[in-house]
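QUALITY CONTROL LOG
STEP: pairwise intake check
CHECKER ROLE: data steward
CRITERIA: each record must contain a sequence immediately followed by its structure tokens, with no blank fields

ENTRY 1 OF 2
RESULT FIELD BELOW
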Amino acid sequence: MPQTTKPTSRTRPDIADALAEAIFSGEHAPGEFLPREVDLCEAFEVSRSTVRSALQVLVAAGMITRISGQGSRVQPLDKWHLLDPRVSHWLARFAHPNPVIQREIFAFRVAVEPFVARLAAENATAVDLLAIETAWQGMIKALEHDDLRFEGKTHDEYDVEFHEAIFNASHNLVWAQISHVLKPAIALLVERSNQSADRLQDSMDRHRRVMEAIRLRQPAEAAQAALAVLERTGQDLGLEGLSRRLPHIETTFDSNNDISSHQQEG
């Protein structure tokens, strides 16, 4: 359990949050049991019913399971409801030290974002293009300031808005909704990868190529440019080369020739 100060009536911690932090950070790994209810009551100076309510929140999130006579055991990662807004919020707040979770988020983005960029190049409206360009311009303007802020927003916030705008430009309801739910998770990787001026400038060039391909209605180029952005992200996260090895939706639709060759092989 993370060490906490003695709770008072005004500073009582959110028990579910505290336990989620311990789980996301890897302090309580999948398969391990959380501290006993009586120990949690003592640690947080709360009643047993309060502890049980907090544990039930984690059960509903798929993060733990209650086993009669044994306690609360952390579930495998694939059982966690990562699309649950509260879990997604925990992910952004607490997953920094957990390389497994970071890799899974990165793998999802590699699988999906090139395909979504292709859809955006096919379906983006003038309003969508303006949103994408506004976010990109915000990133550029933020780089001109020492604190990496422009008009009240950070460079990272504009970066997240850029990717969210591309999901919206796909004009697919499911992809757009997924981008909203996963916004904290995407923000986690953005924050971790945007570290130095040289890397940021290279990243901006790659983002620009995505934007231009979408504006010029070049689906294949947009998909390839989106993958190039993720290659930069992978390098910054210590996952260099992984984006090329991970499966992604786009590989099935690289060109009409590829489709024809797959059909002939079949």
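ENTRY 2 OF 2
RESULT FIELD BELOW
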Amino acid sequence: MIPSYSENQDLIQIEEIDVNHFTPHLHESIELIYMLSGSMVIGTGVDLFPVEKGDLAIIFPNLIHHSQVFSTDKNRAIHILAAPTYFETFNDLLLQKRPEVPVVPGDKLHDNILYSIKNLAELSDNENNSVLQHSFLQIILARALPMLKLREREDIRTHDIVYQTVSYIAVHFKENLTLTKMAKDLGISQFSLSRVFSGIFHQNFNRYLNEVRLQYISQKLVGTSKPITELYLDAGFQSQATFNRVFQARYHMSPKSYREVYSSNK
């Protein structure tokens, strides 16, 4: 679940994951989470929605969202992140509307949806499968979207400070960011911006920024073979010592161990 706003328009990522907490973020992709075991909570705006075993969560593009996990069970899910070219048939609907409840209960899912999710999870990630991936995703959306109650999307981008904050960091997290620079670029006071992080995100600026960077790196560790040094520098960390410290605190293992453990589980 990478909080990236500018993305590869031809990208689709499909993986089975351990569900964890994720800070508020947004992206241009559509995000599907099919719960295999355990449970989680999806948050959009101020609303929270439980996702139980067998349920399908559908996160529309460009909506700020986050996830929380309260269950002590093994919380596993099939996670699909698909760029705009994969949902072009439904583009207007997905960009102009938003679901009142972004979760389809498991007992309501059509057999075609379950079949398509299963096949997407089993397909290897190569160019020869891109047509099949596109087709299965179209089937899922065609069956699932009519089951969601939709409403018009509010246009909050230009004046909502939370939206501005999340989207700014999603675009600029790889840069040498400071709270002072970000406040200046957004045209708001440092005090007001600091209150967004403490009051809305319940963490300070540096912790939020590091969390976004770590989410980016953790997915690259599993999905690519790029050297760890290249990854942490690309993500915006200036110091290897700082990177190692925050990574260890977040995941309770080294980046090398993380790659070995989660790459073997793919």
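INTAKE CHECK: passed for both entries
DESCRIPTIVE NOTE, ENTRY 2: Residues 1-8 have pLDDT under 50 and may be disordered.
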